[in-house]
Amino acid sequence: MRIGVLALQGDFIEHISTLKKLCVKAIPVRKPDELKGLNGLIFPGGESTTITSLMYSSSLFKPLKELAQAGLPIMGTCAGTVLMAKKVSNSDVSPLALMDIEVRRNAFGRQVASFETELPIPALGDKPFPAIFIRAPLILGTSPEVEILARLPDGTIVAARQGSKLAIAFHPELGSDLRLHGYFLEIVTGHQLTVQDGIHSEVKKLSRKAPIPAD
Questions:
Q1: Other C-beta atoms within 10 Å of 194: how many?
Q2: Would you say 173 and 181 are in contact if contact means Cβ atoms under 8 Å apart?
Q3: What is the DSSP letter of 215?
Q4: Which of 19, 18, 21 is nearest to 2 (CA)?
């Protein structure tokens, strides 16, 4: 399995380290040809306006969006969630619009207002997840197609999934709990199996339609 990590700005090194702990090959992505052969991709935390600008200047914006629309599994954390949103309420950043979510940048205030909390995420089991919030966004709203994975006690949405796309408002890569990255890898594996099943189904259809050669 090959998982790319967008390595233009932000804490991509921490994501790469986490993937290595899970015995997964992590590929830093800085240019379009490094997208080839990936099974999944992670957008790290950082500065969403800077990352977006660098995606354009490095000619990554268009191929990233095309791969995502073709079904490539993607996880965005913190600023990565902003990049994945269809709408950003308080910024002129141009997101990739990969999920039917609306987000607000820096929703919890400046860096001095950072906090860590034990966050219930039922998809990961009964044990709460140690979620680290640093200048984090929040998810203001979603379409019915989006599955909400986690909320803060006041109801604020901080994690969501839509098909093969995963939006996480906090920083799982900064802690020692590997479960969220493991959950994303399960999504990647499930997507691969679905694609393989589709290919096998098409091959069977073609084989049934193929003419029987004459003697």
A1: 12
A2: yes
A3: -
A4: 19
State how far the Cα of 198 lies from the Cα of 200, in Å rounded to an integer.
5
- What gap in Å lies between CA 98 and CA 88, rounded to an integer? 12
The residues annotated with a catalytic role in the active site are: 78, 171, 173
Superfamily of chain region 2-209: Class I glutamine amidotransferase (GATase) domain (3.40.50.880)
- Token pair 């992505």 is found at 29
pLDDT tens column, 102-134: 999 877 766 656 889 999 999 999 999 999 999
Q: Does the reported pTM lie above 0.90?
A: no
- Give residue 201's pLDDT: 44
The CA-atom distances, in angstroms, between 157 and each of 86, 88, 147 are 16, 15, 11
Residue entry with tokens 């500065």:
47
Question: Range with the lowest mean pLDDT among 33-47, 66-80, 185-199?
Answer: 185-199
Q: How many CA atoms lie within 13 A of 213 on its CB side?
A: 1
For β-strands 165-168 and 129-133, DSSP reports them as unpaired
